[in-house]
Amino acid sequence: MALFKLFFALLLLCTSTYGAKFTFVNKCEYTVWPGILTGSGTPPLETTGFELPQQSSRSLQAPNGWSGRFWGRTGCKFNGTGPGSCSTADCGSGQVECNGAGAAPPATLAEFTLGSGSQGSQDFYDVSLVDGYNLPMIVEASGGSSGMCAATGCVTDLNKYCPDELKVSNGDACKSACEAFGKPEYCCSGAHNTPDTCKPSVYAALFKMACPRAYSYAYDDQTSSSVTGAEQPGAMSCAHSPGTLRSGSGSGPEPKVKTSGSSD
């Protein structure tokens, strides 16, 4: 069994071949509203969004083969008398539940694909800033015979260092360069839609300097860290067999849940 902790200040994950249990733990000094989006073709979790007060936690069970993403919404107002919204990473549903909608950028994202790789024995995970940043988030992993399920994420408060041209309103979040300027060289689109033609911008370099293990732009695979011999350089992986974990080499490029921005 593997053990993963994800703090967008919020999360924990235990995995095995039979599924995974995610435990969200809010270490922020304020309430956070986690949002959940399940990938196409996999069953949804029991909720798509909920309120998580400071220093509280909540666990959710996921089946093996599940893929999806988590994020934290802030500044939310849901009073039960009408549609509500959040000041950052809102999913636009007007409710605490996101109901299949993703996060509006900027949003720090944690992305997971469970039970992929050779014989369904590997779980892949990453933290992405491709859609910008709104909260610190880190995934901590332990377990496995080699103990090589590495941590990834971003514990730096990027809002404090966000350039003025990327700041959102009063500095509650930091846009990606793609969202801020919409240019192909920042969005890795058009003539810049390959790893060879889309290079990290000065803004991506700033994100990478602050958070070296998080994805900073769409083709950041070659600069993000990897573990346990995973052949997908940007994503962390843990390998397991029934009841225990083993170190795994991976059998080829593995699927990873991409962000809703230019990384697809």
UniProtKB/TrEMBL annotation:
Alphabetical keyword list: Disulfide bond, Signal
Domain of life the protein comes from: Eukaryota
SUPFAM superfamilies associated with the record: Osmotin, thaumatin-like protein
Region (Disordered): 226-264
Cystine residue pairs: C76-C86, C91-C98, C154-C211, C162-C174, C178-C187, C188-C198
Signal peptide: 1-19
Pfam families (alphabetical): Thaumatin
InterPro entries listed in its UniProt record: Osmotin/thaumatin-like_sf (IPR037176), Thaumatin (IPR001938), Thaumatin_CS (IPR017949)
SMART domains: THN (SM00205)
Name assigned to this protein: Thaumatin-like protein 1
Source organism per UniProt: Heracleum sosnowskyi
